[in-house]
Amino acid sequence: MSKEEIITRLAQSVIDGEPEDAVELAKQALDEGLDPLVCINQGLTAGINRVGELFASGEYFLPDLIIGGEAMKAALAVLEPALAGDQERQILGRVVLGTVRGDLHEIGKTLVGTMLTANGFLVTDIGIDKPAADFVSAAREANATLIGASALLTTTMPEQQKIVEELKEAGLRDQVRVMIGGAPITQGWADKIGADGYAEDAISAVALAKQLVGVPV
Amino acid sequence: MPADYQRDSLVELVHEKSVEILSQVGFCVPEQEALLRLEAAGFPVDHESQMVRVTPELLETALAHLPRHVKLYDRAGETPAPFPRGAPRRTLGQADPGDGLGDAPERGSCFMGAGTPVKVFDLVTGVRRPATRQDVCNLVTLQDALPQVDIVRPTVTATDQGDCSDLVEIAELLRYTDKPVVHRTLSPERVDAAVEMLFAVAGGEDAFRAHPNFATLYCPISPGFFTSENVRCMLRWAQHGVPITLLSMAMGGASAPATLLGELVVINTDILAWMVALQILYPGAALLYGSVSSVLDMRTGLLPLGAPERGMVNAGAARMARFYGMPSMCGGLSSDAKELDAQAGFEKLITAVPLLLEGADIIYGVGATDAGSTISYVQMVLDNEFIAGARRMMQGISLHDLDEEVALIKDNTPRGNFLKAKHTRRTFREHWLPGILSRDTYETWQAKNETIYEICRRKAQDMLAHHRASRLPSGVEAELERILRRYLGPDFHFEL
Fold first, then answer.
1. B218 to chain A nearest CA, in Å?
2. Buried residues in B68-94 as b, exposed as e (16+ CB within 10 A)
3. For residue A103, what is the nearest residue in chain B, using CA coordinates?
4. What mean pLDDT do residues B172-177 have?
5. Which of A118, B258, B337, B473 could cross-link to A69 by cystine, CB 3.0-4.6 Å?
């Protein structure tokens, strides 16, 4: 297989949503001595951009998007460690994402994570049932500029407020923007607790994240 | 797959697959004490993964313990809500050829208030805002006044009442309606207080257990998981003999397979798991089979509740419930609309009709709008109208002796006028007449100059101004207040 063909097929594996193929092609690319950054930019990113276009045009739906994102993540896990010391994948921002303490709901949060990843963000998903302190320490460790906090229960909403407060106490409030989401959440609640934004679904979460890091939507 | 395969064998197929999943994989119980109790009762338990499996013997024992008739009564403990009227218990494993959608059931469905989101559309301004304790009192009063609502919920969360709002909501339910009521607590510690209130209203534990006016409900996180709090709450309610609804909230394509049959397997497995667990730990515990499931919208990732699939999959759940001889509580009469519009009308009915045709015992959705995230006073009034019309539809064409009609037709053929006939005067009252929907001529409608929204709002305001359910005896109210003060502080008091 020519180098061009490997890169084209990498893109196609993302468009087709085939994580196993993507991983195989990524390994093959490294074996053949391809530049991993070129594979990422011209293969994976081109593929996920095409997925995004197909979604926007109504041809693709969430499962296509999610599995495309999974294929991209799987191939990235192979390619990124192979980047040379001075190479870095271009990312829009670093995001720490999780579900707040006392809340075990996962699907919506993970969906947001995949959408952000597919749109060029580097996402650290800290999981579910996480206290405010974990969000703050993860943001510090990952040098993140964004925190995304999900709460699906009316009883766990106040935990989102704690994240904003603990960021202030840690002296990180100026560097880190906070976006919140979940079924009972409203813009009014975001305003009340001093969060930087609220998104009602995964698609608007991407637009919000871009806005918060100053990227044209 | 041949069409009649699904029609005749759906319940057996789903049951068989649930049993396979429960015996091979089981369900997760993230609660140490409950795990130990289940293990002691004979369930195979893996402590590391907290997974509990169900053996065929446990299932058989549980089915034998399952009570045949679970009823909810009014507050006086006198009249049961109109469900399980002596329906024959189905023998497991035997197909019932008359079990298909479209066969008119012998009993009607109850309708119940929706809930319990944190938002409400204000009755006066129409603005969406956080719901309060006053909304709980008003919405309970409205459900009490609306004749088509059989079972009452707080429908909203009293967001001005802090962490213990669940107890306040239960108290206001008991004060503002004498219809059967359904609610839950969010913490196991508060179950005891809620039960104290229930027993105080019923006149003691025995009176409550004999004729309960209250059932609770808890949702799993599908598939195969209840939170530790919910497990502890359910065990505590069961200990006090309070009916529990195991209420699946599966999301097809997200927390369950995207096919409705696959989703139904998840719904049934989650309910069957805890049906068995509770019957083994508390033999004879009163349980309801619930599903407020739907399918994910694959454009947005939101959970639409006005989807046709919601009525379809929850009707499947109603059929499973009947197979086990359990009353069903099913999400329907639902909508994603934000206002009283064509979408609301379409979705409310398309999600209710499958449940009516299937004979679901309780249809859960009165007053809900915007995917259940906001309660609307005006929608609640319009829902009452929809239910009345739908109930008329469910009466079908009744078979009766035709001698009188045939004689009348002969006398009037050709070109006769039946409006003059005494038979007409005697029988026309079975026709449904709307109370809100307009059948006026264009000119009359125009002259009245009042939209459906305005009519519903006027009726709601009128009912709130004039209706009040019969009061609890003052001694009982004082007792409820005393119980609540322990949790809410000495300043807590009821409004008059």
1. 13
2. eebbbbbbebeebbebbeebeeeeeee
3. B227
4. 97
5. A118
Q: What residue in B sits closest to A105 (Cα-Cα)? A: B221
> pLDDT tens digits, residue range B423-474?
999 999 999 999 999 999 999 999 999 999 999 999 999 999 999 998 999 9
**Domain match, B318 and B450 both:** yes
Encode pLDDT of A59-77 as tens digits. 999 899 889 999 999 999 9
Q: Establish if B417 belongs to a structural domain.
A: no
B131 inside domain: yes
Statement to judge: residues B163 and B278 lie in one domain = yes
Per DSSP, the three-state class of A104 is coil
Closest CA to B453 of B340, B335, B368, B337: B340
Tell me: do B276 and B328 sit in the same domain. yes
Compute the distance between CA of residue B173 and CA of residue B179 in angstroms, rounded to an integer: 9
B413 touches chain A (CB under 8 A): no
State whether A201 and B300 contact (CB < 8 Å). Answer: yes
Instruction: Tell me which residues of chain B, numbers 297 to 326, contact chain A at a CB-CB cutoff of 8 Å.
Output: 298-302
SS3 B385: helix
Q: Are strands B128-130 and B119-121 parallel, antiparallel or unpaired?
A: antiparallel
Residue A154 pLDDT: 80
CATH number of this structure's domain A3-82:
1.10.1240.10
What pLDDT score does B462 carry? 97
**In-domain check, residue B472:** yes
Q: Which fold has domain A93-212?
A: Rossmann fold (3.40.50)
| Residue extents of the structural domains in chain A | 3-82, 93-212
- B298 and A154: CB-CB below 8 Å? no
Summarised one tens digit per residue, pLDDT across range B394-436 is: 989 989 999 999 999 999 999 999 999 999 999 999 999 999 9
- Nearest chain A residue to B251 by CA: give it: A107
Pair (B167, B314) in one structural domain:
yes
Please indicate if any CB of chain A lies within 8 Å of the CB of B221: yes
Contact B366, B333 (CB under 8 A): yes
Q: Are residues B304 and B324 in the same domain?
A: yes
Closest Cα partner for B483 from B162, B18, B171?
B171
What's the full length of chain B, in residues? 496
Question: What does the alpha-carbon distance between residue B451 and residue B448 come to, in Å, rounded to a whole number?
Answer: 9
Is B435 near chain A, with CB under 8 Å?
no
Q: Could you give the 3-state DSSP secondary structure of residue B66?
A: coil
What would the two tokens of residue B285 be?
């515990």
B56 and B127 together in one domain: no
pLDDT at B89: 33
> Are B41 and B76 part of one and the same domain?
no
Tokens of B298: 């694959």
Cβ–Cβ below 8 Å for A184 and B118: yes
Q: Do A104 and B227 touch (CB under 8 A)?
A: yes
Q: Do A154 and B159 touch (CB under 8 A)?
A: yes
Q: Provide the shortest C-alpha distance from residue B229 to chain A (in Å).
A: 10
Record: contact B118-A154, CB cut-off 8 A: yes
Interface touch B298/A62, C-beta < 8 Å:
yes
Q: Three-state SS for A181?
A: strand
pLDDT band at B107 (very low <50, low <70, confident <90, very high): low
B346 falls within a domain: yes
In a shared domain, residues B378 and B442: yes
Number of structural domains (chain B) is 2
With CA atoms as reference, the chain A residue closest to B226 would be: A104
pLDDT at B73 over 50: yes
Q: Which residues of A touch B302 (CB under 8 A)?
A: 200-201
Q: Is the bond preceding residue B243 a cis peptide, omega within 30 degrees?
A: no
Residue of B28, B249, B298 to mutate, interface with A, max A Cβ within 10 Å: B298
Tell me which of B359 and B6 has the higher pLDDT.
B359
CATH of the domain at B444: 3.20.20.480
Contact assignment for A62 to B299 by CB distance below 8 Å = yes
Q: What is the mean pLDDT of chain B?
A: 92
Q: Is the pLDDT of residue B93 over 90?
A: no
Helix (H) / strand (E) element for A3: namely helix A3-16
**Residues of chain A where predicted confidence (pLDDT) is lower than 70:** 217
Per the structure, the complete domain to which residue B31 belongs is given by: 11-65
